[in-house]
Amino acid sequence: MGSVRELTGITDTERAARVDLAAAFRLAVRMDMHEGVCNHFSLMLPGSRDRFLLNRYGLHWSEVSASNLLELDADGRILSGEGEFEKTAFYIHSRIHLANPNAACVLHTHMPYATALTLTLPGRLQMVEQNALRFVGDIAYDDEYNGLVVDNAEGDRLARALGDKRVMFLANHGVIAVGPSVAEAFDLLYYLERACRLQVLALSTGLKLRPIPEKVQHDTYAMLLAQNAQYANAHFDSLKRLLDREAPGYAG
């Protein structure tokens, strides 16, 4: 499953990228944002527009490490690493990476509360809670479930549906979060699931949701967006310190 020795011969920048992506997998397990050996996270290699890291098919996310990530190109060739990749992972992630320069990191999960909302009509995250306000006007909704993503055409359709948004809800399926770094994308994924969880819990009471005035929504979104990178980096660094204490194998 890889060792520290196998990470020799790469730049410090690539090693840091691998460590961050591996950390995201391990943290997703701890937060119940994973499912079997399904779902996938990817990261463009620093300085590249056509090479990215992706998890190897068949590994539980608690087994993913910096050294056993696969390096792929835009044509699906494995440039480094051992094993295979899931076909749907390649077609979703490669097409979004190519279409969106801001999507250096692409995270796709079937995390429970966000996915629960994709099973409903109209399947929208309501802007009624502070965590949700991180996403005002920043969510794309793909309301057309076409089955498994097994070709470029469907991957391109999803990339177009995402556009320049940072989050997308996939009808009857799950969610995607993207960002310029692992830290920013993971921070989005974390708060998205928290917001969806609170909405599901609130609706379970049978009571009406309490609205937030639209101006307050947009003002709060602007303030949160302005400090997003700084906060996301601090959040992710704190989570990596947790892993360093309790499960340091992710970095090997």
Ends apart, CA distance between termini: 9 Å
Largest sheet: 8 strands, mixed
Order of helical and strand elements: HEEEEHEHEHEEHHH
- The helix/strand class is alpha+beta
Structural commentary:
There is one protein chain. This protein is of the alpha+beta class and 252 residues long. The protein has one domain: 3-Layer(aba) Sandwich (L-fuculose-1-phosphate Aldolase), CATH 3.40.225.10. The protein is 42% helix and 14% strand. It has seven helices and eight strands, in the order αββββαβαβαββααα. An eight-stranded mixed sheet has the order 4-3-2-1-5-8-7-6, sandwiched between helices.
Nutshell version of this structure?
With 252 residues, this protein is α+β, with helices and mostly antiparallel strands.
Identify the notable features of this structure and list them briefly:
8 strands, L-fuculose-1-phosphate Aldolase, about 250 residues, 8-stranded mixed beta sheet, disordered N terminus, alpha+beta, 7 helices
Topology:
Layout: H1 12-30, E1 40-44, E2 51-54, E3 70-73, E4 78-80, H2 87-99, E5 105-109, H3 112-118, E6 139-142, H4 152-162, E7 167-170, E8 174-179, H5 182-204, H6 214-226, H7 228-246
Parallel strand pairs: 6-7
Antiparallel strand pairs: 1-2, 1-5, 2-3, 3-4, 5-8, 7-8
